[in-house]
Amino acid sequence: MHHQTFTLTTHDNVPVHVNHWSSGATPRAVVMLAHGMGEHSGRYADFGQALAENGIDLYALDQRGHGLTAQHDIVGHFAHHGGWQRVQDDLHQLRQLIHHQHHHTPLFLFGHSMGSYIAQAYLLTHSAGLHGVVLSGSNYQPVSLYRAARLIARFEGWRQGPLGRSALIEWLSFGSFNKAFKPNRTPFDWLSRDAAQVDAYIADPLCGFRCTNQLWIDLLGGLQEITPISQLARIDARLPILVIGGECDPVSAGKRQKDLACALRHAGLRHVQLNLYPDARHELLHETNRADVTFFLIDWLNQTLAASRSHPTKETA
């Protein structure tokens, strides 16, 4: 397995840090990964190694305001203006680079948590040519809830400024997540049943930070955008989508991942699969059953690749 890092300089001159894991040979497929809030792409090294051992490359970028990308900017902050569009543009620029380096190689998109929302927004305009999408640790709630939450974020932005970091927003978004796992050992027990993985997250200086009010305004506006069925109907109906998560994930309470799969099907997508793991929490790739999850994901990628040979889609950059 080969691992390298590089910097992708975006169109607005932000140096985005990218991790690339490969077998060193020509890959059978490529996965492009968008990570979640308050973490970074380096945490997916084990997944990258497993994919590489199966002939699949993984490219994972540190989102704006996250990981090593944040060393060039403000931690927990997308941008002063247009942040939601900029994180989508970063994904597309990485896709163009992958397309240049692996011109005829099937490409999959993997989005976890916040990354799953960015992935869905990206799909509204760039789903053509992708061979499949994995939405991990995702969610689906009414637009009215996101609208109300964004009003609170905008108020906090007015009260503290766009770069303020609101304790109220953090409490409203994450405050209840640990309640189901009392007695709590740490504030992040909701991430995984694996205590060592939770401890590694807490010890990682690039994880667990509070995001800016402006990032929350951007994110909640994005959730309003991607939630309506009429918007999801813009995604290529032939695109295979896997919704995967833990039944005890407090982000979705399990049920709302089912709601997301139903919404995608209702929007006309013909190849939507749902796979939920009993007792698992938010981060499946850092859970006690991560080996089984990884095996399932690789099997899904292989099955989707086999099916795509019979029903190819137009490749675009």
TrEMBL record:
<protein>
    <submittedName>
        <fullName>Lysophospholipase</fullName>
    </submittedName>
</protein>
<feature type="domain" description="Serine aminopeptidase S33">
    <location>
        <begin position="26"/>
        <end position="289"/>
    </location>
</feature>
<dbReference type="InterPro" id="IPR017208">
    <property type="entry name" value="UCP037442_abhydr"/>
</dbReference>
<dbReference type="InterPro" id="IPR022742">
    <property type="entry name" value="Hydrolase_4"/>
</dbReference>
<dbReference type="InterPro" id="IPR051044">
    <property type="entry name" value="MAG_DAG_Lipase"/>
</dbReference>
<dbReference type="Pfam" id="PF12146">
    <property type="entry name" value="Hydrolase_4"/>
</dbReference>
<dbReference type="InterPro" id="IPR029058">
    <property type="entry name" value="AB_hydrolase_fold"/>
</dbReference>
